[in-house]
Amino acid sequence: MRIREILIVTMGLLWLGDVYGQSKSRLEFEIRPNEPQPEIVPIEKLGIIVFNPAREKKEDGLSSITFAFYNTEFEKVWEKNVITNKKLNLNFYEYFENAFYLIFNNRNKESLEVVKINPATAVIDNYKFFVVKGTEIKDFVVKNDQVVIGGAIKNTPLIQQIDLNTKKTKTLPSIVEGKSVAVQEVFINAKTNAISAVISSTFDKNKNVIIRTYRQNPSKFDDLVITSNKKFDFHTAKVTSLDAGIKLVLGSYGYRKNANTQGFYIAKFIDDNQEFLQFYSFTELDNFFSFLNDREKVKIENKAERKKQKGKDLKINYRLLTHELVSQGDQYVMIGEAYYPVYRTERFMDYFGYRRYYNYQTVFDGNQFTHAVIAGFSKSGDLMWDHSFKINDIKTRALNEKVKAYVEPEDITLFYNLEGNINKLTIRSNKVDNSEETLTLATEYQNDQVKRADIGSAEYWYDNYFIAWGYQKIKNLDNLEVKKKRNIFYINKMSF
User: Mean pLDDT, to the nearest integer, of 104-125?
Assistant: First the structure.
């Protein structure tokens, strides 16, 4: 499951413009360069949902968002408006169980809205609920019309269950011992329908990860606790539920009081019993530094070896964005994206009495992604192989997955969109099948020249098809049937 979090932009109506081109493999919409881009939601073999999170303000405190649904041939099937409270922000959205859900919330208000859209029937339901003022949502999941949200109220953890049929809400016990308690994730077991939450806390100077599973009576629950040692802190935790009562926990860790990530850990539970907890430093991987040039790679590997001979580990100045752990045959596969925060110095004018002078401040400038790490583990948690995949010059303020993975029985394909070019790497039978490849997305017309593009996005869609989208500024002086210059939002269908 992947939750998409929305960065709110307060503007007027900014919907898709005129359709410049439309074929079975590409859609183009007119768009102004600096306006918010539409969101794309692949709905497997049904098609895609397209909408712009910026809303049109209505009277009586309402606003609307326009949604359009296209089939896999990029033919528009329907288009509808959804009316919501304009004071609530669109925080999250995701596709669950043949329906598309959106969560609207404002921590300064006492209301929450859940919108459910059925793409196949175009039926839209809007549910309104009361929540305590100050509620901040961090994660949500839906199954059998049961919505579970995880978040906080003024730094106090909150887990709520919402029944869309009865329109009743329940607050589930979320208090755990310790300080800095936070809900990391909520999920529902696909077979048992049991609700679980991943909660982090600091207790007795140790950073703990608690997997809390609620029984049929939600006031009762069982806790699985993973405790770090005196040396390390857990930074992140993601839980994957497999068959036969197996839970896998994957996350990143670092040295105490250090925001940088030193490596990753993997834990396995069978029927609530911990089978293992393994820590792996980045310096133990064969290919973690392969994204560097040969000179830099040798230099840092030699430095790590000197530290190792002294019984120490080289401290790494990276952080890791971990994906969900996946099962492939007789192994588990971990994927993470290494990055580091970037800061810049700004000069501003200040005053002391009547005197004017310049002052300086350091501000956050985004997260610089460097490479993706992929590793395979045995069923007992032993590291078997690893590879890295260079991420070329991607810096974003939002911290979300850039690299996507398509896992088949024998192959794993890693890919990402960069300015209309798909960079990909294929791993076959745990080995790199070929060198990194770059595929340029086709434009709509002959003689199109892409003059500028944003980073863009890409995801697996269905069967052997993938989908990519983003902004492009295109120039075409030779085709008299199209504008010489056009700013477009593109959606490309492709296979590789």
Answer: 90
Cα separation of 22 and 29, whole Å?
9
The pLDDT score that the predictor gives to residue 359 is: 86
27 within 8 A of 12, measured Cβ to Cβ? no
60 Cβ contact partners less than 8 Å away, ≥ 6 residues apart = none
pLDDT of 263 above 90: yes
Judge whether 18 and 483 are in contact, CB under 8 Å. Answer: no
Whether the CB-CB separation of 65 and 90 falls below 8 Å is answered with yes
pLDDT of residue 19: 58
- Which residues are CB-neighbours of 242 under 8 A, at least 6 positions away? 248, 327
Q: What are the tens digits of pLDDT across the range 330-346?
A: 999 999 999 999 999 98
Q: What is the pLDDT of residue 8?
A: 38
Residue whose C-alpha is closest to residue 30's, from 14, 47, 46: 14
Q: Give 480's contacts (C-beta < 8 A, 6+ positions apart).
A: none
Asked if residue 473 has pLDDT above 90, the reply is: yes
Q: Report the C-alpha gap between 151 and 153 in whole angstroms.
A: 7
The DSSP code for 38 is P
Q: What is the pLDDT of residues 90-102, one digit of tens each?
A: 888 999 888 999 9
Q: 434: Cβ–Cβ under 8 A, 6 or more apart, which residues?
A: 426
CA–chain centroid gap for 422, Å, is 19
Q: Answer yes or no: are the C-beta atoms of 177 and 201 closer than 8 Å.
A: yes
In DSSP notation, 245-289 reads: TEEEEEEEEEETT--SB-EEEEEEEETTEEEEEEEEEGGGSSSTT
Distance CA 335, CA 343 (A): 26
Compute the distance between CA of residue 253 and CA of residue 251 in angstroms, rounded to an integer: 7
Among residues 108, 203, 183, 207, the alpha carbon closest in space to that of 172 is found at 183
pLDDT digits (tens, 9 = 90+) for 9-58: 333 334 455 555 566 899 999 988 777 889 999 999 999 999 988 778 77
The torsion angle over the Cα atoms of residues 477, 479, 481 and 487, rounded to 10 degrees, is -50
- In DSSP notation, 47-97 reads EEEEE-SS-EE-STTEEEEEEEEE-TT--EEEEEEEEEETTSEEEEEEEET
Q: Look up the pTM and report it.
A: 0.87
> DSSP of 321-336, one letter per residue?
EE---EEETTEEEEEE
Euclidean distance between the first and final Cα of the chain, in Å?
A: 24
| Tokens read off for 259 | 């925001």
Confidence of residue 352 (pLDDT cuts 50, 70, 90): confident
Cβ neighbours, 10 Å, residue 355: 7
